[in-house]
Amino acid sequence: MSANILRQHFPFFFGPNSQSSVYLDSAATSQKLQSVIAVTQQYYQERAVNVHRSSHQLAASVTEQFEQCRKTIQHFIGAKSHKEIVWTKGATESINLVASGLAKNHFKAGDSILVSALEHHANIVPWQHVAKDLGLQLRVMPVDAMGVLQLEESLQMINSTTALVAVAHVSNALGNINPIAEILSKAKQMGALTLIDGTQAVSHLNVNVQQLDCDFYVFSGHKMFGPTGIGVLYGKYQLLEQLPPYQLGGEMIEKVSFAETTFQAPPLKFEAGTPNIAGVLGIGVASEFIQNNKNTMMQIEETLYQHLLSVLSGIPQVKLWGDKVNSICVQSFTIPGVSHYDLAVLLDKRNIAVRVGHHCAMPLMHELGLDGTVRVSLATYNTKSEINTLGAALIECISLLTEPVTQVETNHSVDKVEQTKLLPIAQSIQQAKTWDQTYRQLMLAGKELARLAEQYKTEVTAVHGCESQVWVHCLLENDRLVLQGDSPSKIVRGLLAVIFEALSGKTSHQVLVFNLAEYLESLHLGRHLSQSRGNGLSAVVDKIMAYCQHPSATQES
Known about the structure:
By secondary structure, this protein is of the alpha/beta class. It contains 21 helices and 17 strands. A seven-stranded mixed beta sheet has the order 2-8-7-6-5-3-4, sandwiched between helices. Helix 10 (277-313) packs across helix 13, helix 15 runs antiparallel to helix 16 and helix 16 (435-448) packs across helix 17 (490-503). It is globular. Residues 408-420 have low confidence and may be disordered.
């Protein structure tokens, strides 16, 4: 089966925008199979009944289909029994279910929980919370300077105090395939329980939980061509029996009286309420597709990944991160001196979708000394042509972001009365007729913005809710606002300059009645801002307004 034939199973690539869109963000969520869309649509249109409850024939038929999907997932990951497959909302809920249960009956004083520096927040925060509540130690397996797990040091950390090891099969931020077989073996020797986050693994690697001999394995449907809002918790049956219920209510109940309640056996014990029936049917179909095409998919993805490495390595400014030998088709990179946020903006304007930032792995970025990376994540539906398009766009964008910024001519056909109401930066932005002209004007404005002194780049001045790091320092002098700000992103600095120009020198009352949305619309800038970037600007203005309301309580002097 060829790559083109597999691509034809995904209707995203044949829609109205398919010819101009390059989707390289499958680690965030994959595109959906036509068969997945069909089975979920059929359920809602033709078979919308509940499972395990009604006695009529249609309900029995859907219940049988529902439970068959449990058996499909059992075979997909090599579980011993379908009773070891629990439906959840996703990997995050699966981890929280296990963490909540183990916190009640597994850990004892002096125990430690071991995670890796590569983990997604979802496989850190629940264990951090448990450790804090129970007075346990949370220990971290280290990575080297490139973000590759240091195996020998990690194995040495698994000792008699280790009660649980929780580690990703594959790093979501870097794509590394972690040496989980060795980690699982050592954990078993020391009597520690193990949980593997397989979210980034199941659609790219062969997974057999019995061969791995892990205690728990979790993953989500939406990253394996399936629906959102559905996930899987695999657990060895005797461990699932020992875990207490996670939520209480319908379906997981065996018998209820006002005196006491008894619960169903696993897996139903953990499935309170009406389940995501359409999601279960969808993930079942998705897993069958992967199972039937796994060898072809792995060949395609390896070819694509090697081509991606070749293209990225051919761009001198690009620095690659992670393990380029043991990796799925995901690659993170940075460009020294270039903000990943700025690069993402320019790529987006060229209809290329990548992920930038910390990828829900802030501790890893801290370990690497980064504020984020650009992540390209491929899947079996991508093509070499798309990778080539990315490469050409990167070269062009790097040139734009590193060349000296000079004034450019814009169309001066704006009404003279309107011009007199605008400040210089606002006027230049409003006169820009294309994105390229707008971008140039923003870069010029950002270049002129006075950079914030390092001493003021603190948690107090940090603005949360922005895609890039942003700091805003406010001061009232004679009841007039003085603003300073900074960001690693040139484009964000330009946007700060736009906002600062509008608010600097204003009174607190004038600031508090400022309408950001209307102002951006008047400059024709709103159409160039995504929702998340607009939210970031709103966060900046909210911080300034909070200062104006309570200047002594919200900002350093």
